[in-house]
Amino acid sequence: MLRRKISDDLLAWKNTPKKKCLLVTGARQIGKTFIIEDFARKNYTNYIYINFELMPAMKSVFDGDLDVDSIVRNLSIRFPKVNFVPGNLLIFLDEIQSCPNARVSLKSFSMDGRFDVIASGSLLGLNYKEVSSYPVGYETVAEMHSLDFEEFLWALGVGEQIISYVSDAIKKKIPIDTSVLEKMEEYYRWYGVVGGMPDAVNKFIETNSFGESFSAQRDIINGYMNDVTKYAPTADKNKIRSTFRSIPIQLAKGNKRFFYSDIEGSGPGDGSRTYGSSLSWLYDAGIVNYCYNIQEPAMPLASNIIQSSFKVYMKDTGLLMSMLEQGARVAFLDGDNKINRGGIVENLTADALVKKGIELTYFERKGKLEVDFILNPGGIVTALEVKSGNNRQSKSLETVMSEKYGVKRGIKLENTNIYVDEDNVEHYPLFAAAFLF
């Protein structure tokens, strides 16, 4: 069984007095159902599982009054062996987007407080119009992701002592032992190809085969496209597929800004009005991340965002890699710096930052400078550059750290060990993004 960090979050939620209902969001196939069911079995004597997609008849439980007594009465008829003991019962409402009334009922359960309720859904951002009254203030939202690099290391069986040693070295800015560094770099290349989708990771661990993990990734992508067929508006289905297929092309460019004109089939004048809803659909389905350009690298970053200028990254880099040709995956595994792999490593970095709860922004001035990421961890504006090839120059980083912009902290991720140079720029190996903040 894969060890996941969210298990600790679930336990902390359970032990919180006067807690709200918990809503676990995230894309399909990231392991939400498996982890929550395992948590339920280990921590509750009584447990009810309802999947509204697999058990559509259960929607009738929420067709009438939505007070807790009425819902429990209806559930007790359908689950006669369950003891409805306050404080020792978990009700898990899975794929709750398929039953809008169940989402409304979370307010009643939170106000009542007798029973713990966890809801989960993969496409919650797509059915907002169907929910009559959102339980604002009555649910705690936890976003779940695919495995991060540390969880991938756990899956590989890497010991806590080694992981702690690497993490401490990064935080203390001291070099890592060469043998450990080389092995961690290899594992990071594996992670870049396998990604963090549980099925792909399990296939890789079980078979030691990248081919098996690739097959799992393709199944996941096919599942995403089936969701487009099932849930997307008819007029948008082909546009969503074309937008999705354009992401590797967008990231392969020197300037990785997302352009609607780079979508296959787009014509003159096509832009956000034509394809904007398609990109939003992919975001709401939990498939992509946005990274917005900002006017100035200064706090507050959110108020500096340029809504019309952004990059788009895949939420899972393994899925991105599965959309590339086999030669690109082989070259990446071999550490070949001659391939254009900047987009891949940038995607890995973006994915790592998002999994730490960091909002993505970057800073670009046409023909002048571009910094891959501008961050604000701990209230310190930080410029972060990713250098995956042999070109180590960072004139843009030097510029934003000058008096003109005044960025206080500069970080470069590259094929190197850890050191701080004479300009106070911190240099780390590429995998350090998983441990930096």
Structure, described:
The structure is a single chain. The protein has 437 residues and is α/β, with parallel strands linked by helices. It has two domains: 6-143, Rossmann fold; 155-434, no CATH class. The protein is 41% helix and 17% strand. It has 15 helices and 14 strands. The chain has helices spanning 6-14, 32-43, 68-78, 100-112, 149-156, 160-172, 178-194, 198-207, 210-231, 237-252, 272-284, 317-322, 326-333, 342-355, 395-400, and strands spanning 21-25, 46-51, 89-94, 116-121, 139-143, 288-294, 305-314, 361-365, 369-371, 373-375, 382-386, 409-414, 419-420, 425-429. It has a five-stranded parallel β-sheet with strand order 2-3-4-1-5, sandwiched between helices. A five-stranded mixed β-sheet has the order 10-11-12-14-13. A four-stranded mixed β-sheet has the order 7-6-8-9. β10 and β11 form a beta hairpin. α1 crosses α2 (32-43) and α8 (198-207) runs antiparallel to α9. The longest helix has 22 residues, at 210-231. The relative contact order is 0.10.
